[in-house]
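Reviewers of the previous submission asked for a worked example of the structure-prediction workflow described in the proposal, so we include one complete record here. The input consisted solely of the amino acid sequence. No template or homolog information was supplied to the procedure at any stage.
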Amino acid sequence: MTEVLEDPEEVADVLHGTELEGLPVEEGLGDTLVITGLDSGRLLPAWQIARAALGRTGRWPVLTRIDEQWQDVDAEQASSDMDGVDPWMIYRWAGFNSRIPPEEAHLWLPDFLDFPDPSLERSLAAVERSTWERLLADPVALDQAQRRADHLVGTGRWFTPPGGAQRVLLPTPVQWLAPAWLDYHGATAKAALPDLGDDPGRRALAAAIREWEREWGAELVASWGTMLQFVTTRRPALGEPAWQLALQHLAVGGSLESPPWELALALTRSDAWFLHDRP
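From that input alone, the workflow returned the following structure tokens.
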């Protein structure tokens, strides 16, 4: 296990010679260290510098707002709190519980597809799954759909806080423990669910990040309270892997406004993820 540097001056020494040199490194809640004074136009490059230094600092970097609040926990407590959860028992796309009257079915389809049987009431999940299967079977429609998904590819939707950002260096090199400290609404809103123990949303988000890290090389870059941003090193294949990952994103990012087929297509082409869940 990588040694976690405790002294802010030691961390500052590690960052010597980078564009983060000279920025203040201060102690924060829960044994974190906080770097302020970041250039708002170069947040991702600044994160990449801190990420590259992980082997020397032992601290996973996460961008947050200047006024962001987080939990006062230590690494040992965080590790024990985050184990043993199936995230998809807690997170589930709301579309699975939505019904669509026959007269509204066309509203949920891209305009280049016809609804195959407008006489039946169906679940939103069934309509979207049917759309996905029809796109995969029709190269012309798939090409049109890919163009619809272009706006979801890359970092174009990423958020930059108008009041500036800070970098929180967590007291662990294990990124999936981050929800123990950070307050993402999509996790904290589930804290009061019955029969799931304390903070099930935080533990489920940690388990999801761990799964995404293993499957897709996903790395948490930023937590903006209602938004999460990741970079990845692997993309899902067109088909079932992309579809299932899109449903996972819609489950954790409950305020994403894209249909799952559109999100699934984007995920096959993008190395950046954006999740959003607001009150």
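The longest strand covers residues 61-65. We consider this example representative of the routine output the project will generate in years two and three.
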